[in-house]
Amino acid sequence: MKRISLYDTTLRDGCQSEDVSFTLEDKLRVAERLDHFGIDYIEGGWPGSNPRDEEFFLAIKKFHLTHAKIAAFGSTRRANIAAADDLNIRLLLKADTPVVTIVGKTWDLHVRDDLRISKKANLDVIGDSIAYLKKRVDQVFFDAEHFFDGYAANPEYALECLNVAAQSGADVLVLCDTRGGRMPHEVRTAMAAARKVVTTPFGIHCHNDCEMAVANSLAGVEAGAVQVQGTVNGFGERCGNANLCSVAPNLQLKMGYECVSPTQLTQLAEMSRFVYELANIEPSKRQAYVGASAFAHKGGLHVAAVQKNRETYEHIDSELVGNHQRVLVSDLSGRSNVVYKAKEFGLDVESSDPAVKTILDEVKRLEHRGFQYEGAEGSFELLMQKAIHGKVRHFRLIGFRVIDEKRKEDEPSLSEATIMIEGPDGAVEHTAAQGNGPVNALDRALRKALTKFYPQLEKVELLDYKVRVLGGDGGTEATVRVLIESGDEHDRWGTVGVSPNVIEASWQALVDSIEYKLYKDQKTKKGGALISVEQAAVARR
Hints:
There is one protein chain. The protein has two domains: 5-260, Aldolase class I (TIM Barrel); 396-540, Alpha-isopropylmalate synthase LeuA, regulatory domain (Double Stranded RNA Binding Domain, 2-Layer Sandwich). It is an alpha/beta fold. It has helices at 24-37, 51-59, 87-94, 108-115, 119-134, 147-153, 155-167, 184-197, 213-222, 244-254, 262-265, 268-278, 300-308, 335-344, 354-369, 377-389, 438-450, 502-524, 533-540; strands spanning 5-8, 41-45, 69-75, 99-105, 139-145, 172-177, 202-206, 227-230, 296-297, 326-327, 396-405, 414-422, 428-435, 461-470, 479-487, 492-499. Strands 1-2-3-4-5-6-7-8 form an eight-stranded parallel barrel, surrounded by nine helices.
């Protein structure tokens, strides 16, 4: 079975999507998830284009990725300057990645009207940039920008650009449909011509302006490409990039290629929702393979048929991509997902375990209220732990008050939180703290109160905070979902809260964050027993 390499550019090209803005912590979490899924290359960003990308390349070095290689992206050197003296090239090397992807012009229109240099000078730019980088990094990929448009306008010159890139040492020549306007037959024709000129391996990078990015990517593979570039959920500039959530299963399940392991492919739907959640975008229900409606049935004829044989109206087994069949009048599945997550968390349950139904019922109840657990792994693991072993609570709230005050128009508001809790030994702790906003003040007050009992909470940080309004009918009375990301020196985790009151929703997520930290610390202690406030009270009596 021939293997096709998957190259993800969600963290660079995907971030150019109109509604997508990842924090540094978001990008690190996405990179971890992509690595776990089996992505071969993760393009982390463009060094020098913004401080966040520079920080990413520094921070990702501390992570132990098991499979993926990190790639830095940049452009060829400027004309009339040596590659060694070009700031962009120096920043690419400073990122210290094993892979550098460099983009260059292959359409003579761009050479003439954008770069405003001669075609010969552009060839020198391509060759010099690649040769210089190849001596200093393990792999250099050349993104042949606008290749298919360039081939249509001036095939000889577009192919000459590829030949120079190949001779200069590029490891992969990535042919780009940058405007997203080409058709599959055009991709096949141009790639066939390119393969006659050079023997260097080819990749394919397509945009979706004609809704053809996935089709063109598959056509590229049929024509000989061994690498496909794209993004999770098709995020990207204008109409987006090739959607790897469609590309991967199409290649693997429909065309007989290997991209990831079958087990990794079952994580596809979860990864899709995870990235949507961190991007703070509502998942597309009708997205192929991974959408909530992809295997949903409502019509009576359809429902009757799939209950007898799912193949009657489903083109694949939904579980192959981590999705599940839904009958809209009654949900008939979901147990396998719960068992999978339980085992991932180290909880030993079987599908027939009564706790599985308890978890399913609770998830349905909470999701009906607006809870969402993609991106909130901490809250979901606590929910599962509660159903299987009973709730473990490390403190009890007696009460809190949050004050947000603004004294002058031109001064920032002041936030203060006061909190009273009962610790595991029955002692009451009453503290206050100020913060940059009411949620930050509440977070500080809570951890200040609890560090007396749990000193390890001093190492916990609130890394990210997102609020999403659920439905627009209620105006300022609408229900909101709060997603919080927290972390310590070893790990990071997400928690969620839902309420019409944003402070209450934030409190729920904050409590889960603290509870998860204490729970996971105790779980890692060999033989350590989990003890709740109620259990401690019984022990004292």
